[in-house]
Design brief:
The complex is a heterodimer of chains A (about 240) and B (about 110). By secondary structure, chain A is mainly α. Chain A has 13 helices and no strands. Chain A is globular, with a radius of gyration of 19 Å. By secondary structure, chain B is mostly helical. Chain B starts with a helix and ends with a helix. The chains are: A mainly alpha (about 240), B mainly alpha (about 110). At the A-B interface, α3, α4, α5, α6 and α7 of A face α1, α2, α3, α4 and α5 of B.
Chain lengths: ~240, ~110
């Protein structure tokens, strides 16, 4: 207990503000992680492999997609490629938060990069304007996110097929994305980007390897950039 | 064996994508069009993740514009917009979907 309180006083207050900002997302992440664990086991992973997938891959929706493709006997190389395309957004997030990390040495950047997820990114992006230590705030959001995800997948992997298939638990995944989307729709170009992206992703649904996701996002970003230019010309 | 290769491939690839700008290319200056597009990434990616889940039936994979998932998802989106609360969004969406399915709407 003394070790714990020593640790808590050593961590900067901004870390705990990040933790607090993440806590409301736990009910969205936990079932999502459980669904990923269940999906991997049902696709033919052992529970150990399913847990290792979460620890090493730590890749949210890409884990679900990999399980789906593995179950349908897709070649390993194609599965890896499909998950990396879905995870291209991490490179975009990485570029987006890079300006916050000035002065952080590379050795400490690696674990911070490993902790980059939709959720930790959304939390650090939504930090209050008064926040002075964005790196600690980010770490505070990323740490419980990691714990929640690992616990969720482990429970899912161990429960495996024991959950009735009639429970629509998978619906928790898009619902948690809906909850993440609402706060990032702050400008007209962002809303335009979301609408175009959604339409293209639906229209291109039958493309292989969830390429509709990448195509939709790219079209949405292009549409948003176009809207930004039109708006700035009018002003 | 294949499973471990898959796990390793996804793990190394994902870490490199996450570390791309944050660690590996941190000293590069980016053109303004790249930085301008970054603010649009979350909205575009999340919308592309959500929309097909609401409009396609999970069991058959068929286009289903009048399914219970679209109705439950849109009502949950209204709750998300008003409350900005993840838990309320989940409770509303899952609760409505279970209720719709119990009423025989599939």
């Amino acid at each position: 207990m003394t070790a714990l309180s020593a640790l808590s006083s050593r961590l900067p207050p901004a870390f705990w503000r990040g933790v607090r900002a993440f806590v409301p997302l736990i009910p969205g992440v936990l079932p999502f992680g459980m669904v990923a664990g269940i999906a991997a086991v049902q696709a033919g992973f052992t529970p150990l492999q399913s847990i290792a997938f979460s620890l090493i891959g730590y890749a949210g929706s890409a884990q679900l997609i990999a399980s789906q493709l593995f179950a349908s006997h897709t070649p390993t190389l194609l599965i890896v490629l499909a998950t990396l395309i879905v995870n291209l957004r991490f490179a975009m997030y990485s570029a987006s938060i890079q300006p916050l990390f000035g002065g952080v040495p590379p050795a400490r950047r690696w674990p911070l990069a490993y902790g980059l997820t939709d959720q930790s990114y959304a939390v650090v992006l939504g930090r209050p304007a008064t926040e002075t230590n964005a790196v600690a705030y980010y770490a505070g959001a990323a740490m419980p996110m990691w714990l929640t995800w690992q616990m969720g997948t482990a429970v899912g992997a161990l429960l495996g097929a024991r959950i009735p298939a009639s429970w629509p638990l998978d619906f928790a995944v898009p619902l948690s994305f809906i909850a993440l989307l609402a706060p990032v729709l702050r400008s007209r170009p962002q809303m335009f980007a979301a609408v175009v992206s959604a339409l293209v992703a639906v229209a291109a649904h039958d493309l292989p390897f969830r390429l509709n996701l990448i195509l939709g996002a790219l079209c949405g970003i292009a549409a948003g950039l176009f809207a930004q230019r039109r708006l700035s010309r009018k002003l | 064996m294949n499973v471990w290769l898959l796990i390793l491939g996804v793990g190394v690839g994902s870490l490199l994508l996450r570390a791309s700008v944050l660690v590996l290319l941190r000293d590069r200056n980016w053109p303004q069009s790249v930085t301008a597009s970054l603010g649009l990434v979350p909205a575009a990616v999340l919308a592309a993740l959500i929309a097909p889940e609401l409009l396609y039936a999970p069991s058959t994979g068929a286009f289903d514009p009048v399914g219970p998932r679209l109705a439950a998802g849109l009502l949950a989106a209204m709750v998300a917009w008003k409350t900005r609360d993840v838990l309320w969004t989940l409770v509303t969406g899952l609760g409505l979907l279970v209720a719709f399915q119990a009423l025989g709407w599939r």
